[in-house]
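Student: Hello, beginner here. Can you help me understand the protein record under this note? Any guidance would be welcome.
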Amino acid sequence: MAPDPPPVAVSARDLSIHYPTRKPENRAIAVSGATFDIAEGEIIAVVGETGSGKSTLAETVAGVGGTKAAGSPQIRGGSVKVLGIEVREISKRHRDELTLRVGYLPQDAGSFLAPRLTIGENIAEPIFMRDRKFNSWDAEEAVATLVDAVRLPLGTMNKYPHELSKGQRQRIAIARALILEPVLLVADDPTAGIDVTVRGAILDIIRELQQERAFSALVVTADLAEVQRVSDRVMVMHRGFIVGHGELGEVLANPRHPYVENLARSLHGKPREETHVN
């Protein structure tokens, strides 16, 4: 008897996402027919060039897309379940539930910390947004634990965002995304704009925290070489389609699309393009 498949945190079937416009003929399809699963406790990395749809996919999985706000991506076809909740036409109640269980790290999140709040207050803010009466000592302990986990001195809690480097602010953004102990982390290009000397450390922090806390994760990364630091499984996106999916070594060894073939050549020192794909 075959073993039961592992429980899934995210399950997408023939998922298509578009950006609505006033003229239907001008609709931009960002993701077309995506089918994939993310098992509980698994990290999957998503790579692709600018405009490939990877950030749109991340936003949708995080449950922050599909709103009525201008520019919000909409699910046009198929389905995606996140932690058992169907995201297509999601109700406000279920969206609120999802945001408590999913940590979302948008692009350049470290640049959007509240400048008038201390680092400790920035990290703790989601706790008090959920429960204004939450015990302040317990919140401070949770914040201190995460500041230490992202490899910053505890004294950082009393500083303000402008006193930190960009890489340090990004670490604080990771801590903030994890303060509610999410079941799923969605990190959209967490090393974007970060000095090359510290990008690896950012990804190592995500990997170590995932191993320690056993959450599932979808991590968008722009550099194929960095995928190996965060996950053994990868989805390669090109012009809205998933053109490679599976174990990184297998995907590169047996490319089924010219774009994946080019990435494999780049990684092995025979580039037609740079390995950096965003």
